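User: what does the whole thing look like in 3D?
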Amino acid sequence: MRLQSIRTLAIIAAAFVAGLACEAKKPAAAAPAPAPAVTNPAPKQDDKIIKIVSSLPRTGSAKAQTDTIVNGIQMALEEAGNKVGNWEIKYEDLDDATAAEGKWTPEKEAANAEKAIKDLDVMVYIGTYNSGAAKVSMPKLNQVDLLMISPANTWPGLTKPGKGEAGEPEKYRPTGKVNYTRVVPADDIQGVVGADWAKKLGAKKVFILDDREVYGKGIADLFEARAKDIGLKIVGREGIDASAQEFKPLMTKVKDADPDLVYFGGTTQTKAGQIAKDMVAVGLKVMLMVPDGCFEDAFIESAGADNLNDRTYVTFGGLPPEKLTGKGKDFVDKYKKKHGKEPEGYAVYGYEAGKIALKAIEMAGKKDRNAIREACLKIKNFDGALGKWSFDKNGDTTNRTMSGQVVKKGKFEFATMLGDED
Amino acid sequence: MHLLLADSGGLAIFVQQLLNGLTTGTLFALIAIGYTMVYGIIELINFAHGDLFMLGAFLALTLMVSMGLAGPVVIAIPLSVAIFASAPMFVAAYGVGGRRLQRVVPGPSWVAGLAPAIAAAAVAFVAVKFIGPTVQLFTGSARAVIGAVAIIGIVGVFCAALNLTVDKIVYKPLRGAPKLTPLVSAIGVSFVFMGVGQLWKGVADINFPDLVPSENLFAKPGLGTELKGVTVEQEAKGFKRGDTITKVNDAPVTEASIAGIVAAQRVNADVAVVVDRGGTPETLKLTIADAAPIRFTWKDLLVLLLTLPIMAGLTLFVKYTKLGKAMRATAQNPTAARLMGIDVDRVIGATFLIGGSLAGAASVIYGLSINTVSFQMGYQNGLYAFTAAVLGGIGNLPGAMLGGILIGLIRSLGSQYVGEKWTSALVFAILIVILVFRPSGLLGARTREKV
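Assistant: Here's the predicted 3D structure for the full assembly of 873 residues, as structure tokens:
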């Protein structure tokens, strides 16, 4: 009897292992499903309104960041009086995260995409925040020509042939048409400028860590490739288990490799704070460089400012709010007046995405998903908060401005412009 | 011997990882005891145990804020000794208090469950509202020591009362039910606790104040990585690459003498150095680095100082006290135990109390040493602790301790020699292999054969 129950236990334990494995390997891009809009019985369009939805992680530690993105989008729409021509613009803020996970999930993102597809009034889909999430919704939205504008995705493979994995970006475009655009520069630039900056800071030996997610591993790969090209020595490379609670053994190993800079390709949500903390705990007080997924106050809060001050460098695919000029500065001023606090780094990208959505609808001049998609890709020399820029044929911004931040006294401080030279 | 010397760097790292594994392993072990005790007595896997641990950590965090302990305070030996002395006391206190609690509350079990529920709420409320500000009257290390001891006690009582509540309200009515019913209820309770944690502190990782110094006990002053002899290799705090250090604390240094001069300083001490920058000397601040091959901090010591005596004490308790004997009897055969005049319900209640208080103690120690808490910490740590219990032989106390330490070691050595991303897989692979050859865990069979 006892032995029997122990067997049951073993089975339960095995089931847990399986559960863990599933969690670790979330299905990335789900197989493109047939467009449900066609089979929907009686969807009706309302010719007085046009809907814009956004799909961002609205629960979890990214919330502070996405709050300001949503504020940015709303400000863009309000400035236009929530109107384009005779259409009233309605905005809906969808959440692709769950409270239980604390971050985005493929299921929620897929459900958001389906919801947008079925609602025939939805003409623009602003999102996503995480590149992995974009992989889920892109092929779905592509089949109904629904325009996607991402304020934050930086994985190059989403748009750039040959810069991502095999089959990217074609597999996200079942119709062969481009429906995905982004107002933020991709990581093929950020990873490269990160490595260049590391060298400029005097690093010679670099240990590279990543969180094994699309964004984190992708940017770490690009960093590694560039670091090799410019003569930095890679003394080690490890992928972490982002559900682990502490990394002292790993950081002990890193310390043993004696790097003078540690690069972590990951986000606040994938334990960047704990990595910084455990570096200090094992007595490794060298430079730490992280990408823009950690460019939020939540990163400093989770790591503890003392563990970051004066040695943590953050690259960001754009300019921090206080360095924006012209229309960008106007936006930051208006934002501060309206919301009573500083916008986070991505707020202006939300604002720009909102502006682009309106511009595309205006240029199309009709309530037609395909026409709006085509119009958006034709946008050239857009004079916005991020300066004067255009979309290229892949849907990428021509903007290449990047910046580097350093953590000082528990705050991000602008340190340098990056990547201007190329 | 020759080989050992030649490979001293490798040996140092091996010893370091053993220490890393041992400290995290004892933490897993402490949580695992809660799983294994309850399983030993009523054959229920109390999945809510990990989340109870999480709530304990959250209460500790709240208390720290109310006591004004958010900043780092240098305390070392007094804290360890004070907590060390107080921990067994608390374990004993819960046993006695819990039994009285059960005696005074008759009636249906959900009514009986209200008493500990109220107790838990009252402890938390009183502690945050009144004890916190009282502790604030003290300053410096007195505040830290009193605060830390109070926190470990309060959190222990809180978790014990909460665990008893869950038993009375959720598990007790299901005592005769098929085994899967209380198991599923336990998973439900786990979700409820997680939800409470989420509402309480949100979903983001939270920094737990760094109260215990992370200074190396074996510290050895030396040159940092940014220096190579007198030449600066890396830009930091005013230093530029290629700078040459000419003076340390006004004494001239050379390539050969700098190491000796630095070795005479204290680790983390700031010394004034003069660098020669193209002829113009400039005075800068240099922090002395730690060049010791092994790092064992006050934090690590604290974990061992607290967990090992608690585990030893508990083993002795179960072996030699009357209640401990009653526990073992109930574990072997509840019906026979009842016939022998043992109040089985009281024994079960005491088990939940002790298990809960250990989760509480573990949560505070965890917070002080890992320094991050989140509402998901209970799930991940609970999973490892549960695995530890199964690995050692569930229902067996020394087995849970052995299992916890083994998992800690597998994780740290696996991270060093196999690769960080394989550590979880490695833990479970080893679990499966062990269960194939010893289906009842490493030490599991021994107790069974005693029957």
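In plain terms: Residues 8-42 of chain B form the longest helix (35 residues). The two ends of chain B are 48 Å apart (CA to CA).
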